[in-house]
Design a protein that fits this description.
heterodimer; A: 115 residues; 7-stranded mixed sheet; 11 strands; B: 115 residues; 6-stranded mixed sheet; 4-stranded antiparallel sheet; 53% strand; globular
Chain lengths: 115, 115
């Protein structure tokens, strides 16, 4: 059973370009969480999605960032018109449900560098 | 609002020596508490978790943590450190429920192991 798969592992974008980060949850998991880790900092919650629905986007910047988790395919975190401050590691986690019996499983992250 | 503080940014320990990593949390209800480890360039691996019951929790890789409600702490310990324990360690507090399993992370403690 494959774990949470994130791709690409590394992504380099010039300022003003778009970045698309993909996350395939573990098999049977329908809940996805995105976190951002800035250099030398802990992980900060961005958004929580279930299939086709955004449940909680309280940690998502209001502009340029969007997320989706379509019925088919991976979850996508999209950053438009990237700026240097967007350089960070972006982690996805998935779980089969909510509550105590649904621990989060993390992917290895996508490291975004904006030049 | 919930928060997690890890007072030590870096800790250096000799191989074979004991290790203790501090974690203090702020949470309005009974907390769900976690410790994760992150090796360089990797995702997060769950070491252990506390939900209820025995306040001394055993985890993987020989780690344990003790929940002390009176001190709002959840310190991680290992009696004898191995070189492979060099990594970054994150404490997290979670709100688990119908609204999702959202975690709030501390800033992390980087552990260096001297031979």
């Amino acid at each position: 059973n494959a774990g949470v798969m994130q791709n690409p592992r590394h992504l380099v974008r010039r300022r003003g370009q778009e970045a698309r980060l993909r996350c395939s949850p573990m098999k049977g998991h329908s809940h996805v969480y995105w976190y951002r880790q800035l250099p030398e900092e802990g992980l900060k919650f961005m958004v929580y999605l279930q299939k086709e629905n955004i449940i909680d986007e309280s940690g998502m910047p209001k502009e340029r960032f969007s997320a989706e988790f379509p019925k088919e395919g991976p979850s996508i975190l999209r950053i438009q018109q990237v700026v240097r401050g967007d350089s960070a590691a972006y982690f996805c986690a998935s779980s089969p449900g909510t509550g105590e019996n649904s621990p989060l499983h993390f992917g290895n992250g996508t490291r975004l560098t904006v030049t | 609002a919930q928060s997690v503080t890890q007072p030590d940014i870096h800790i250096t320990v000799s191989e074979g020596a004991s290790l203790e990593l501090r974690c203090n949390y702020s949470y309005g209800a009974t907390p769900y508490l976690f410790w994760y480890v992150q090796s360089p360039g990797q995702g997060l691996q769950l070491l252990l978790k506390y939900f209820s019951g025995d306040t001394l929790v055993q985890g993987i890789k020989g780690f344990e943590a003790e929940f002390k409600r009176s001190q709002s702490s959840f310190n991680l310990r290992k009696p004898s450190v191995h070189w492979s324990d060099a990594a970054e360690y994150f404490c997290a507090v979670g709100a688990l429920g119908a609204a999702g399993n959202k975690l709030t992370f501390g800033g992390g403690t980087r552990v260096l192991v001297k031979p």
